[in-house]
Structures are given as structure tokens and as C-alpha cells.
Specification:
Elements (H helix, E strand, L loop, with lengths): L2 H12 L3 E7 L5 H13 L4 E5 L10 H12 L4 H14 L5 E5 L1 H7 L1 H11 L3 E4 L8 H9 L3 E2 L2 E2 L5 H8 L7 E4 L15 H12 L3 E4 L5 H8 L4 E4 L1 H9 L3 H12 L2
Parallel strand pairs: 1-2, 1-9, 2-3, 3-4, 4-5, 6-7, 7-8, 8-9
Length: 260
């Protein structure tokens, strides 16, 4: 089994839900991002999603767009993100690492070259936001050849029949259930039908399900945990570090993570 499967097996045994966290890498610099990842893992985060900044992040809201733009201005690249992951893998040998990106970034690197580098760095899975079911075989085949898997996305508007097809062949991964329509960003409220939707998706796919987009409070996470295997937080973490890209921010990040 891979690290993702081991984590979810332990979660089922203990009853503990999974806390996954997204971070835009490279803001204000890669050393700070590395320290932010260390802080999150040491304070209860189970899975890290390493966001590779991209010039046209169509799925992201204003917070992650701003962080990504600043990271690109500061010279962040896919290569530097992978170097950071490789360093962190030595420190955290069992934590699942997901590379979160857009397909253009991976394709322009060369899929084979990228996959070999990602495997060497210790990446467990790739989440390519703009790769849909019909177009994923090219990427998935290369990832499989390098002992990695793909994290699929299911939107609130995805039919259950399509959700089942999306899950096929990805039993060694988890499903990212998007909680709201639109782009990333913290929300005051999550949809009233969310819990039923998550139950149905989990039932038809048979995969572990983590829900994200809009999650920013322990109360929202608790609600998600009633129907899913855990939750994902991104924009709230990125916003905290945008506001405090210093030691104060890391201290607040530790407190934020422990609050969940």
C-alpha cells in the first residue's frame, strides 16, 4: 500500500478524520513555505497539498491567485517546489504529499521528466485541477509508471454516475469533493445539501472522500466529517500567511492547525 492508503487505513481503525491542507508554495520564499509545511504537520495536518503557482489559475479565488502571483514574481518554479518536497520527505517519511497544479505546468516540463522528478522527490499523488476524466489517461499512465497516483475532483454539479466513473482505477487515492460552486475561497456558510451529497458520492465511488473549497472553521470541518473521511483547507491558510509572512504568521498557523 502507498502512504495515502496507509493513512486512511489507520484513520478507519482509529476513527480519526483526516485533515489535509493546501499551501501555495514560494510565498514569500521557498524557505518560508518549507517552514509552514513543517508547522502544519507538527500541529496535526495529515496530508499536504503543495500548490505550484501558475499564471492562469482558473479554479482559484483571489487569495490563492494573489499568493501565486507573488510566488511567481519571487521566482518560484515547479523545479524549486520539487526540491523543497524532496527535502521535506526526508523529515516526514510517512506523510502523504500531493502535488497540486495545472496541466500546462506539468506538460511543459515534459510528462515523463516531471514524473521521474516527482517520484524521486517523494510525491505520492498529483492533483491536476483542469484535467477531466476524458483527458486524464495520458497523465495517469505516466504517473503509474512512476509509482504515483492521481487525486480526482468531483464538483457539486457532478452526477453520481459520472462520479463513479471518475473513481474507477483510483482505489489507491482519495476523492476531492468540491463543496461549493465556483472558485476557492473561505465561505461563511456551506451548502445545506452538502452532507447528503457527500454521503452519496462516498457510497457510489467506494473511495475515501475529503471535502474542500470554502472550509475555514472547525464547525464547518465537523459538519463535513459527519459524511466524509475528512476535510481540506486552503484559502484560509494562505490568507493567514499573506497577512503575516513572518514568525507571527507561523505561530498563528500552528494555533490555527491545532484548532482543528
Amino acid at each position: 500500500m502507498n502512504r495515502i492508503q496507509n493513512l486512511f487505513a489507520a484513520s478507519r481503525k482509529s476513527g480519526k478524520k483526516i485533515f489535509a491542507a493546501y499551501l501555495t508554495m514560494g510565498f514569500p520564499d521557498m524557505d518560508f513555505s518549507r517552514r509552514a509545511v513543517e508547522t502544519m504537520i507538527r500541529n496535526g495536518v495529515d496530508i499536504i497539498e503543495f500548490g505550484v503557482p501558475f499564471s492562469d489559475p482558473m479554479a482559484d479565488g483571489p487569495v490563492i491567485r494573489l499568493a501565486g502571483r507573488k510566488a511567481l514574481e519571487h521566482g518560484c518554479t515547479l523545479e524549486k517546489v520539487l526540491e523543497c518536497i524532496a527535502s521535506l520527505r526526508k523529515e516526514f517519511p510517512e506523510t502523504p504529499f500531493v502535488l497540486f497544479s495545472y496541466y500546462n505546468v506539468l506538460f511543459s516540463r515534459g510528462l515523463e521528466k516531471f514524473a521521474a522528478e516527482a517520484e524521486a522527490a517523494g510525491v505520492d499523488a498529483v492533483l491536476a485541477v483542469d484535467v477531466v476524466l476524458e483527458d486524464r489517461d495520458e497523465l495517469l499512465t505516466v504517473l503509474r509508471a512512476h509509482n504515483m497516483t492521481l487525486v480526482p475532483l468531483v464538483a457539486p454539479t457532478t452526477s453520481l454516475e459520472r462520479a463513479a466513473k471518475i473513481a474507477e482505477g483510483l482505489e489507491d487515492s482519495f476523492l476531492y469533493a468540491v463543496t461549493v460552486k465556483g472558485v476557492t475561497g473561505a465561505r461563511a456558510e456551506l451548502p445545506p445539501e452538502l452532507e447528503q451529497h457527500l454521503k452519496e458520492v462516498k457510497n457510489v465511488t467506494g473511495m475515501p472522500v475529503l471535502a474542500g473549497f470554502g472550509v475555514s472553521t472547525p464547525q464547518q470541518a465537523e459538519r463535513i466529517n459527519r459524511s466524509a473521511d475528512g476535510f481540506i483547507i486552503g484559502s484560509a491558510i494562505v490568507k493567514l500567511l499573506l497577512d503575516h509572512p513572518d514568525e507571527t504568521g507561523l505561530q498563528q498557523l500552528a494555533e490555527f492547525a491545532r484548532g482543528f
